[in-house]
Amino acid sequence: MTIEGGPLASPADRAAAGRAARLACPRSGHAGWQPAAERPDPVAILDAQAATRVPELVPIRNGRMLASPFAFFRGAAAVMAADLATTTDSGLRVQLCGDAHLGNFGGFRSPERALIFDINDFDETLPGPWEWDVKRLAASLAILGRDRGLPRAERRRLIMATVRQYRKAMAAFAGQRDLAVWYARLDVSLLLARWEAEFRSKTVRTQLLLRTTQSESRDHLGAFAKLTHMVDGQPRIVSRPPLLVPVEELLPDRVEWAEATFREGLRRYIESLPDERRHLLSRFQYAHFARKVVGVGSVGTRAWIALLIGRDLDDPLILQFKEAQPSVLARYVGVSRYAEHGRRVVEGQRLLQAATDTFLGWVRATSVDGVTGHFYVRQLWDGKINPDLTHMSPSMLRLYGEMCGWTLARAHARSGDRVAIAAYLGTSERFDAAIADFAETYAKQNARDHKAFAAAVKSGRIPAEAGI
Fold first, then answer.
1. Cys bridge to 122: 46, 58, 349, 443, which one at CB 3.0-4.6 A?
2. E strand or H helix at 48, and its extent?
3. How far apart are CA 80 and CA 270, in angstroms?
4. Which of 326, 308, 306 is nearest to 317 (CA)?
5. Worst-scoring range by mean pLDDT, 170-184, 236-250, 378-392?
6. Do β-strands 244-246 and 115-119 pair in parallel, antiparallel, or remain unpaired?
7. pLDDT tens across 172-228, in order?
8. Beta strand ranges found along 294-428 (DSSP E)
9. Cα(203)–Cα(210) distance, rounded to whole angstroms?
10. How many CB atoms neighbour CB 111 within 10 A?
């Protein structure tokens, strides 16, 4: 820590270090990608992950990844981590999101109830080379564009715009004071000011309005209305197997034991919160819990939702307990300083996000299937806006990519040496073009991997249930 160890190097020295990094790792060196001679089998990597997951849910994960090359990419963070480890490295470190694809950004309500845009998935977070996040984001644009049939020239324009926004935002943050960077965030209310020209498009304005309106119903009251019903005068989570299974259906002969086990985990999670949050949660009573399938790559990890009731039935709270397994990056960048993976996720989220969930915490607990694991906890929904990547107009997709680029730069600027990174990037488009080249090349590799994955499903090597 600087307070204990003396002042940081001067901005001039930090900028010089960034420019010097180009000698060891030229910006043009990020272009292109060639699979290593001993590249691991991507299907084997994914199959190995399945060994620590709930067996009956693994076919659902595989079925969701089978849907398209982009869906496969979303679930194949472990595959890309192995590939990124073979690429050139600038030597500059930040706290990585670890899975910074387009689908892992979105809107949600801050504790102050402002609607903000930010990264929203941190399962793989660890310190590592900043360019790994940029490459995964850029590759997701190329892969999505291919899935949607966009011409290569248009895909390149989208990627270049996204990376350009990252580079320019990093340069802006490099010139700001530390507190200004820490307080920076992308309020949806400020989007018009930041991207005024783009909002002249009626289509873009309409699409943003629709997504903003969606957030108004995707809060704790919306979750309560959609996911619960009354049974004998008591609120209970609905049954929608296999995606949502209440405890009494999951373990019909051990309900009391399962609820006692879960309540103990709930109590221990509360210990990870600051005192004022503990006080707030003390006003709620446990009512019910269920297993819930979430996401694409996360399917098969243990995930639960807990229904809590406050003053009365008009005062519900639904918390999500999501298993945190070792980061797919750990093999290549080193293990976390935190022994508990739930805490690793939470601390990474707090460092990268401009505002975090009021109830964000962690716990190490025994799940009701008898497996002791690490979990992080947050509200299930809190004004969440999920990006509709399938139907975004090209103009909206470009704006969305720029929003992601700005947000990723802000996250990296909070955790790494923004002055050195900005100096490394420079003012030309050399890095932007290199990343665009990499993204297109990697998109082709991802298509080959998806094809191999589909062949493994067809041969019976791995199980898959499509359409769930």
1. 349
2. helix 42-50
3. 35
4. 308
5. 378-392
6. unpaired
7. 999 999 999 999 998 876 666 665 555 555 555 555 554 554 544 566 777 888 999
8. 303-309, 316-323, 361-366, 372-379
9. 11
10. 11
Mean pLDDT, the chain, integer: 91
Lookup result for tokens 């011409």: 151
Q: What Cα–Cα distance (Å) separates residue 340 from each residue in 107, 323, 344?
A: 28, 11, 6
pLDDT digits (tens, 9 = 90+) for 261-270: 999 999 999 9
Rounded Cα–Cα distance for residues 209 and 188 (Å): 10
Contact 71, 370 (CB under 8 A): no
Evaluate if residue 113 carries a pLDDT over 60: yes
Residues in the chain, overall count: 468
Name residue, tokens 């940029």: 134
Task: Assign residue 299 a region (left: φ > 0; alpha: ψ between -120 and 50; beta: otherwise).
Answer: beta
Q: Could you give the CA distance from residue 203 to residue 212 in angstroms, rounded to a whole number? A: 14
Mean pLDDT along residues 99-127:
91
Residue-wise pLDDT for 389-431, tens only, equals 988 888 889 989 999 999 999 999 999 999 999 999 999 999 9
Give the number of other Cβ atoms within 10 Å of residue 21's Cβ.
19
256, two tokens: 């009391």
Block residue for tokens 């609905």: 238
Quote the tokens at residue 365.
């607990």
Tokens of 396: 């909206």
375 burial type by CB count under 10 A (0-12 exposed, 13-18 middle, 19+ buried): buried
Percent of the chain having pLDDT more than 90?
79
CB 424 within 8 A of CB 22: yes
Instruction: Give start and end residues of each alpha helix (H) in 51-129.
Output: 58-66, 69-75, 77-84
The H-or-E segment that residue 444 falls in is helix 430-459
* Cα gap 233→324, rounded to integer Å: 35
Task: With a cut of 90, say whether residue 231 has pLDDT above it.
Answer: yes
Q: What residue spans define the domains of the chain?
A: 2-213+393-459, 220-379
Q: Quick one: which of 96, 107, 48, 37 has its CA closest to 76?
A: 48
DSSP state of 102: G
List Cα–Cα distances, 416 to 70, 117, 183, 438, 446, in angstroms. Answer: 29, 21, 15, 23, 29
